[in-house]
Amino acid sequence: MNHTPRAKERELGERIASVGAVVVAYSGGVDSAYLASVCHGVLGERALAVTAVSPSLSRRERRDAEALAARWGWNHATVETHEVARDEYSRNGSDRCYWCKTELFEVLAPIASARDARIAVGTNLDDLSDHRPGRRAARENDVITPLADAGLSKGEIRELAAARNLPVADKPASPCLASRFAYGVRVTPEGLERVDNAEEALRALGFRVLRVRDHGDLARIELEPGEIERAGGLRTEIAAALRSLGFKYVTLDLEGFRSGSLNEALLQPRIAPRWGSSASR
């Protein structure tokens, strides 16, 4: 059996054709953009890319998603979602993504129903081994995952997106702004705007791959390892920019950027007292 990316893309096209009509949850990242491209190529007007707009979507991401859809002539719409108004979401537990996707699919469901279409998301093969509570919401809402079902990995999607001349082929991953909040730090519209502004301040200094992690009063900056030394030389400018947004403390993570670093806290083992408990003394 041929398992090349091109062969998987052909299988993907066949899967999409068999569905008949789709509503693609389109954020503008490489996965959803590639999926939107394939769906429009196979289904034409029976494909609709929909971008969910809320405080958790950065201004830059919305702008770029709309521009890409317009450039390629995709059938595109935006809808408002209100996940931040859900206490289950804003309290920011480890299941936050489940409530985010539940809100998204509830908003997309009537759109899909009116078009006799299925909702499709850009989940890829690699996502299946990560902490992704949103997958449960997808199963509960009968949402399809064509990229993962065709066995396409992130690297293969980037390769195929580049072959289609999609400008997002090498775009760094950029999940929603709420993913910057440490679990337990409440997600608010004001907090999301603060993180968005903090990351824009760093981009203005020339950094491209980055995260500003919100730990309440503390901002933890993740950059590519090769950029850490340069950031150290700009520490005065960086600290001033982030303090002006309300952070009391500004730190630079020496381990550098790593996707999903806040999930590390979910896997931390309980540390036993070094010398035994006080009861045993």
Summed up:
By secondary structure, the chain is an alpha/beta fold.
Describe the protein:
The protein is of the alpha/beta class. It has two domains: 5-163, Rossmann fold; 177-267, Alpha-Beta Plaits, CATH 3.30.70. Helix content is 42%, strand content 12%. The chain has helices spanning 5-19, 30-43, 59-72, 87-90, 96-114, 134-140, 146-149, 154-163, 189-204, 228-233, 235-243, and strands at residues 22-25, 47-53, 76-80, 118-120, 210-214, 218-223, 249-252. The chain has a four-stranded parallel beta sheet, with helices on both faces. A three-stranded mixed beta sheet has the order 5-6-7. Helix 1 (5-19) packs across helix 2, helix 2 (30-43) crosses helix 8 and helix 5 packs parallel to helix 6. The longest helix has 19 residues, at 96-114. The chain starts with a helix and ends in a 29-residue tail after the last strand. 38% of the residues are buried.
Query: What's the structural domain tally?
Result: 2
The CATH fourth-level homologous superfamily of the largest domain:
HUPs
Bulk shape: globular
- The stretches of 5 or more residues where confidence is low (pLDDT under 50) are 266-281
Alpha carbon gyration radius: 20 Å
| Widest β-sheet, arrangement of strands | 3-2-1-4
| Class from helix and strand fractions | alpha/beta
Please tally the β strands and state the result: 7
Mean pLDDT: 92
Q: Helical content, roughly?
A: 40-55%
At the first level of CATH, the class of the largest domain is: Alpha Beta
Measured distance between first and last alpha carbons: 65 Å
Q: What is the CATH architecture assignment of the largest domain?
A: 3-Layer(aba) Sandwich
Total helices: the number is 11
What is the CATH topology of the largest domain? Rossmann fold
Strand content: 5-15%
Largest sheet: 4 strands, parallel
Give me the strand/helix succession. HEHEHEHHEHHHHEEHHE
